[in-house]
Task: inverse folding
């Protein structure tokens, strides 16, 4: 297997989004992310500024969520969240689409919502991952979202929040990679709990995963890949 530990570690966004995590646990999660040299920490928005401080000088990017977890915030609130996150040092923003609008077929509103956050982020040289929450959607809706996000030059399309009724599936990842333009990456979230699963989604063209079991995955990677 021609994959090194660093290839795996830099696929992981270490997820610190469980609402019951204490502030001490959030700080410990940031330190763990540095120790394992992952791609990013995705932390609750209120802890973004502290996360940025802790990650300073490392190669781990600070990231947070926008419109999380249900996507039903007004666009103005999502923009305000994005601006606050960027001011606090956020490098990558994981935003949730308005699922209700998607299910209603209000595609102009969906586009405007995503565009507003992408515009704010890209103006500050930050990146955006657009979360679909696929467990609630049918395939044509997922395909249309891939098309819209591609047209708006979002940086990633992402399967799920990890807090819906289901997470990433192989079928959805294949569909998203097929319909996302080449310039846009795909992130899997929810259900990637071990190294074998991570390598399986990597083989489909996924280059990021959201993970809370980062230590377990990367301890196994160190044993098997180095």
Result:
């Amino acid at each position: 297997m021609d994959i090194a530990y660093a290839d795996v570690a830099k696929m992981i966004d270490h997820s610190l989004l469980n609402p019951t995590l204490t502030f001490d646990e959030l700080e410990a999660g940031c330190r763990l992310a540095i120790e394992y040299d992952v791609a990013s920490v995705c932390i609750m928005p209120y802890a973004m500024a502290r996360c940025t401080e802790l990650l300073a000088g490392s190669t781990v990017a600070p990231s947070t969520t926008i419109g999380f977890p249900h996507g039903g915030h007004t666009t103005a609130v999502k923009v305000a969240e994005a601006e606050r996150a960027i001011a606090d040092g956020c490098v990558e923003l994981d935003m949730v689409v308005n699922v209700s609008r998607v299910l209603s077929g209000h595609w102009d509103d969906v586009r405007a919502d995503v565009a507003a956050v992408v515009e704010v982020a890209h103006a500050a040289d930050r990146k955006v991952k657009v979360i679909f929450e696929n467990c609630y959607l049918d395939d044509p809706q997922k395909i249309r979202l891939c098309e819209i996000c591609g047209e708006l030059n979002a940086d990633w399309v992402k399967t799920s929040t990890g807090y819906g009724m289901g997470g990433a599936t192989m079928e959805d990842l294949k569909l998203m990679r097929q319909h996302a333009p080449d310039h846009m990456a795909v992130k899997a979230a929810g259900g990637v709990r071990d190294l074998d699963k991570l390598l399986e989604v990597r083989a489909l063209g996924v280059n990021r995963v959201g993970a809370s079991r980062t230590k377990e995955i990367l301890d196994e990677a160190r044993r098997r890949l180095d």
